[in-house]
Write a structure and sequence with these properties.
mainly alpha, 3 helices, about 60 residues, single chain, about 90% helix
């Protein structure tokens, strides 16, 4: 499932709102270990474009 979500995020990365929506959906289907891996991957791939979105989504997920 993690690889599928990565594929989706790559495909929607052109649109900030869509990217955030799909990232939030990922938390509903992934187990904690996969979320940790997704977080690392997202920061590597998208931190230049969507650092604010990543910080917002991942900080809420940990709370």
């Amino acid at each position: 499932m993690l690889e599928y979500i990565k594929t989706i995020l790559l495909k929607v990365s052109f649109d900030k709102k869509l990217f955030e929506k799909e990232l939030r959906k990922a938390f509903k289907v992934l187990v904690p270990e996969e979320i940790k891996q997704l977080k690392q991957w997202c920061y590597e791939k998208f931190s230049e474009m969507y650092l604010y979105v990543l910080n917002k989504v991942f900080s809420k997920a940990q709370a």
